[in-house]
Amino acid sequence: MSDPSQTPHEYYQEGDVTIGGMTSQLFSYVESLLFERHPQSNLIDENVATPKNYQHLLALVFAVKEVNDHLKISPNISLGFHIYDSYVNAKLTYLNTLNFLSLSERLVPNYSCDIRRNLIAVIGGLNSETSFFINNILSNYKIPQMIPKEDYQYRGIVHLLLHFQWTWVGIIALDDDQGDKFVQMLMPLLSQNGICSAFIAQIHKLDSSDDVSNFFFMPEPQKRLMLFLAKTNANVVVIKADTLTVLFLKWVLHSAAGENVIETTMGKVWIITAQWDFSSQTFYRTFNVKTFHGALSFAVKSNEVLGFQDFICNVNSHWPEGDGFIRIFWQQAFNCFQSDSKEDEDNPYRCTGEEKVESLPGPLFEMRMTAQSYCIYNAVHAVARALDAMNSARQKYRAMVRKEENLEPLHLQPWQLYPFLRSVSFNNSVGDSIHFNEKGELETGFDIINWVTFPNQSLLRVKVGKMDPQASLDQQFTIDEELITWQTAFNQVLPLSVCNGYCHPGYSRKKMEGEPFCCYICDPCPEGKISDKKDMDDCVECLAKEYPNKHHDQCLLKLLNFLSYDEPLGITLAVLAVSFSLLTALVLGLFVKRQNTLIFKANNRDLTYSLLISLFFCFLCSLLFIGQPQTLTCLLRQTSFSIVFSVAVSSLLAKTITVVLAFMATKPGSQIRKWVGKRLAYAVVVLCSAIQTGICSLWLYIAPPFPDVNTYSITTEMVAQCNEGSVIAFYCVLGYLGFLASVTFMVAFFARKLPNTFNEAKFITFSMLVFCSVWVSFVPTYLSTKGKHMVAVEIFSILSSSAGLLGCIFAPKCYIILLRPELNSKDHLSIKKKSIF
């Protein structure tokens, strides 16, 4: 092809002000700069085209027509347009950007001799790279450039991956500045959200130093990408879908059709950025679109514009002569050859003129307005609205300064449009709100598109979700999984894309050294902890009132544990307590009936009654320990038991002291005789019991016992117990009781062989030995048991020690009264004889 300045691919329509447009329909290269001759701008390949992108040009033309026909910018300003192709090439993009600024045959930067070219704004290229190249030139001239905002879709990609729990993904981008930017912006977002990259394939970018003939036969990058796709266990691949990347990827997949790789690539979910429009180059007819079946792509939020499809239907091969794109579009779209020569009339590949754009398949051309076309349409209307606002402001200013001269549109400067363009906000013809930020970027959301392909190479795009920056935080990302059609390899089951299998409930993730943080092993939860979700980083403890089940994937409510009257142990202890208390009552009744006999008179009847009554209440005190603890029972349990036991032991101590003093008083001249009597015995009982009562009162005043629940001592149960309040006070009570018992035991032990009628000392000695043995063994046993068994140990100690006192002291007396009554008479007594016991 010759110099583009002579036969350029451009489309020009005159107007009072001109909107520039940069499309990307053609894919061409220029010769390498060898510095052996004067640099040329000759295209050496224009055979690769993207027919689908022709719609972008039509959207701009349609929008300009709509503005001129209906909007009527005051004061009667008409819009024109001038459209060039970027050729997806930096050098040619720069060249055609400069062409916007000059209408001369020879390009002379910074000089334009045709004032009819009143360029007011330029609508940027299909991708950010082309827009960047355009901006490098236009920014120097302060010409507004309209481009969609891209950054928001990075967040959309992360939301999409997190929604489906895809944490192990591949990334494909060009090996250039824009590809690097894509990777550098995406990777931190992925890492912050727990997502890892299985591979990053940056494809070599063809430039002027490359041989075009080798573009599709570059062994190393093609082999490397095929290797990534074949060996990775990542089922999800994120693609920065600029034209070169998609072209290269399509060719790799097309080349892999005869390899095993194709089976692997059929099992991938492709997540594709907003530049993607399933555009297909000339080799589309041999390319299997099934590879992209089930792909998910982002698209700038769009809507169907009324009248656009009717406008497209009017496109034909005899389109206005100013359109320099229609010829190559027609040839590539319909695979036919256009010629004005009569010699070619019989050529089977010659276009007939009857071709209809509505008959083209979706991958080649769509009748429905695409997302990119929708952006172009809105950008044209935004410029028109900004122009209208600017002219209105100029009219108001003219009226204010009372000037009558006309302000001609030709005097408009591009930089004057900036403040009006930044503040423009309107609802377009379909009701969508359109506004731009201060950088000239379109503030809009993104639709999430699911691509469905069919065996006849047709396709269907289904909107399955959206990213809406204007919505509330929890509604910014929405998706309907039921609308998604997955790649056939997944059999409509949600694809997984993780480094390794999920850790099931009951396990937590454990990092693997030397591997990405998304790769881990599953470690069972330790005792006391659970994980109730998949892939938990750490196991968590159950609440205090719960415990883990055996699989450690659920917390179960602990059962309440206390010694109940409904269970065999509680019933047994209660029966024993009642039985012993009744037995004590019977003994007491027997002694009251025989109170005047010698055996009672000899052993102090009042102390005997005191002992029997205290033992009766000792047995009944044990009932306070059975049943669920309540406030009253907790207050009475230890205090009543300790006080009543103190009375019983004090009575035994008083009995023993009385025996010793009585023996000592029989010696001639003894001064002890004045101490012998009931008053001393009563004093001992009252004093010793009063001390225990004082300790208990102080305990209740400072830190009284209260009902409590112990959730830690038993894993599967909550122990309903009485919290002693003050542990020191509790052990002081037991310690004092032990002290009384020890003193009583020692006094009785020394008095056990004293000659006396019905001497009780040796029985008291034996009873206190039993008593002390029980309570000495109680402490370690009590501390080593848990739950209701602690209570059972204390009840058993109370019953056994009380029964020991009852049996050791009163069994011999009952034996004499009931079985040997003759021994209870004066005829058989002699002071000189030994006691029968």
Topology (SSEs and partners):
Blueprint: E1 10-13, E2 17-23, E3 26-30, E4 43-49, H1 54-71, E5 79-85, H2 90-99, E6 119-123, H3 128-138, E7 145-148, H4 152-163, E8 168-174, H5 177-192, E9 196-203, H6 219-231, E10 236-239, H7 243-255, H8 261-265, E11 269-272, E12 296-300, H9 308-313, H10 326-334, H11 371-400, H12 418-423, E13 425-427, E14 433-435, E15 441-442, E16 446-453, E17 459-467, E18 477-479, E19 507-511, E20 520-524, E21 529-530, E22 540-541, E23 546-548, E24 555-557, E25 559-561, H13 568-593, H14 598-602, H15 605-621, H16 631-665, H17 678-702, E26 706-710, E27 717-723, H18 727-750, H19 761-784, H20 788-818
Parallel strand pairs: 2-5, 2-6, 6-7, 7-15, 8-9, 8-10, 10-11, 11-12, 25-27
Antiparallel strand pairs: 1-5, 3-4, 12-16, 13-14, 16-17, 17-18, 19-20, 21-22, 23-24, 26-27
Helix pairs in contact: 1-11, 2-3, 13-15, 13-20, 15-16, 15-20, 16-17, 16-18, 17-18, 18-19, 19-20
Q: Would you write up a description of this structure?
A:
This protein has 837 residues and is α/β, with parallel strands linked by helices. It has 4 domains: 10-150 and 305-442, Response regulator (Rossmann fold, 3-Layer(aba) Sandwich), CATH 3.40.50.2300; 152-303 and 448-490, Response regulator (Rossmann fold, 3-Layer(aba) Sandwich), CATH 3.40.50; 507-557; 568-828, Rhodopsin 7-helix transmembrane proteins (Rhopdopsin 7-helix transmembrane proteins, Up-down Bundle), CATH 1.20.1070. The chain has 20 helices and 27 strands. It has an 8-stranded mixed sheet with strand order 9-8-10-11-12-16-17-18, with helices on both faces. Strands 1-5-2-6-7-15 form a 6-stranded mixed sheet, with helices on both faces. It has a 3-stranded mixed sheet with strand order 25-27-26. α1 (54-71) packs parallel to α11 (371-400), α15 packs antiparallel against α16 (631-665) and α16 runs antiparallel to α17 (678-702). The longest helix is centred in the C-terminal third of the chain and has 35 residues, at 631-665. 41% of the residues are buried. The model is unreliable at 1-7, 208-216, 280-284 and 829-837 (pLDDT under 50).
